[in-house]
Amino acid sequence: MEYEAALRERWDDLTSCVGEEVRNKWWAKIRDAYSETHRHYHTLEHLSLMFKFYDMYKDQLNNRCSLMYAIFFHDIVCNLNSQSNPQDSSAVFAEFSKETTFDQVNSVRDLIEATNNCIPDASVTGRFGEDDVHYFMDFDIAVLASSPEGRASTIIIIDNDKCYF
């Protein structure tokens, strides 16, 4: 797949301080999860699109490393019959972190679990959010701001995934 090589390179850069065996094992888990046949939206292409927006706005972010981990892990669990996918994905990240020296686990988990609610608290008051979580949420649903045709087909695809959105 065309997205896989670029994502793998990004993963290897992000996890350069992690042992090769752990890095490879977790890349395989990420790749396999986002390549599950029942997925239509929460795929490697979705991760690639999120990283496109990450690259555009990374200078505005406070904790780039945490946000990159959150992108990789935020939809790693996509159980068609569950509404706890964000919490379950967060738990998978916690498993990964036990095999690393990464010390900002809660920051990543908070970002992942924020996807359980598509409207961060700061957005409810009518102001624009400038925290990493606001950028992260925008990256995750940015495709919905595409053309009406693209947006309509994306909504159908998301509905087919039936993952908690």
Verbal overview:
It comes from Soboliphyme baturini. This protein has one domain. It has 165 residues and is an all-alpha fold. It has nine helices and no strands. About 7% of the residues have low confidence. It is globular. The chain starts with a helix and ends with a helix. Helix 1 packs across helix 3 and helix 4 packs across helix 6.
Helix content: 55-70%
Largest sheet: none
Give the CA-based shape: globular
Structural class: mainly alpha
Unreliable residue stretches: 150-160
Mean pLDDT: 85
Order of secondary-structure elements:
HHHHHHHHH
Number of domains: 1
Terminus-to-terminus distance:
25 Å
Strand composition percent: under 5%
The number of strands is 0
Q: Rg to the nearest angstrom?
A: 15 Å
The number of distinct helices, counting runs of at least 4 residues, comes to 9
Essential attributes:
single chain; 165 residues; mainly alpha; 0% strand
